[in-house]
Amino acid sequence: MNYFASNRRIMLFCALLISACSNPPEQENATFSEASLRPLIDPDVHVFEKYAVVKLNLVGDVTIWNPVQIVRGPENVMYVSNNTGEIYSIRDTDNDGLEDQAFLFCDVSEDGLRAPASMTFRDNALYVGASDQIRVYLDQDKDGRADSSYVYFSDIPYSEHPYEWTSGLTFEENGDLYFVLTTDSWNASPAKDPDGLRGSLLRFDGSELEQYATGLRSVPSMSFDASGKLFFIDNEGGGNPTEELNIAVQNAYYGHNPEKYKNHPDKVDPVIDLTYDVAPSGIEFATPDETGQDLFISYYGPGERWKRGSIGKVRVTRDADGNYTFEERPLVTDLPKLSDLALGEDGSIYVTQVGQTDYWYQALDQPDGAIYRLIPAEWVETEVYDPQRIAQEDADESVLALGEKLFTDRVCFACHATDGKTELLGPNLKDIARVYNREELLEEILYPNKRIKPSMAPTRLVLSNGDVLVGRVVNADENQLKIMVVGNKILDVSREDIAEEKVVMQSLMYEGLLNDATEEERNALLDYLLSLSNSNN
């Protein structure tokens, strides 16, 4: 018996019995008092602007199970998707102002689809981005549940790789739909993609598809500003040296997977590198004011660091000549594993906390995750933001020199560059202080097999002549793959020569690297690595 499927069915059945035949109620606006909200505030979240951070206590006919996407729908109701396939509205049924019940809208798994990677509404229809199609769900009888659906777009290269997503669904005012197909650069067996759609920003008007821009890696979210410019985030890794905020430019190339786009134009740089946290996951512009517009950003945090995650914002201003300036600010920290955000009509910020998942970000056999609401509240006491850079800026030069010597003596430079640009076998360490604190970084060095970032996982190839290659796939198509092996050599391997290929869940970095190092040497190495973010090397 499939325990996960059976357990999920039982939980859904019980929830359905509790709220059978109930229709979602009409929503009413409510105001909040300090007395009503203060007891509900999550005390573990650090707040730098005046928001009351509340975890919503939701019951109903859906179990909250690794919620991933959230979008504001008709009548200003929030709709959420689970990693297990359910999409549901969350509503306030007792008129206290806080959503307390979840009502099933549809279940994409019933249509054979994986978890939604993106959702957006247009004309009361819900557009859902799945791995192999964009599907539209309709509630024609207005009872709060979808009663029909149809495929809107399906010309998508698809190989069932868990990292194949259709993300960032965003409508322009004229009805054109923009979306991104995530890169296939880390897929050792990608689907045929003669038009180079994977790794592209696409525009679809309902009949014609346009490849709007190329060189994208993983774009979870996009948002139009007040002037009509489309902003999008792209994640660090695979040739992207930073977490990026970009503006979409027609026919532009953004730097990822140059092998796939051999005749690409010059790279378009990000308008700003996002530095407050790791793995931006959702963005949305707020209504502009007299001086500019706030872009809110949710952050997932480092992979498998289950207590990491945050919300930030970028203050965006645009002068009369169309020139932009950007100021990045923190909002909250220690709100872990955020997958998406949406803005409420009252200025609230809703975020999905996906919770703990497996290596490929798929649901485990027990529910996890939550939905939080950040409610504007002038009485909230805020903190002064501390970037928590563990690097000792006043560390003695001799200590940093000792750390650099250890980095050289242990040949760390053979796999790790420190310039923020060069891609070697291992991650570039220029901004490692932004990714890990001191304790986390030491753990990554001592136990490299404990957590392996999927895009850094090695692949083992057995060739038809008996040779074995182990390295990191940096590019692949239907004819060959390029694999980076020890020494940072990139080898071209024809698929005709591959007898077996397998992802190996073991780091290319060996354990015990610092077993014979003294405490002084370990600390010096950490000081050196964490100081790289402050250097101009």
From TrEMBL:
One of its GO terms (molecular function) is heme binding. PROSITE patterns: CYTC. Residues 398-533 form the Cytochrome c domain. The keyword Iron applies. Keywords: Heme, Iron, Metal-binding, Signal. Residues 1-20 form the signal peptide. SUPFAM superfamilies: Cytochrome c, Soluble quinoprotein glucose dehydrogenase. PANTHER family: LARGE, MULTIFUNCTIONAL SECRETED PROTEIN, LARGE, MULTIFUNCTIONAL SECRETED PROTEIN-RELATED. This is PQQ-dependent sugar dehydrogenase.
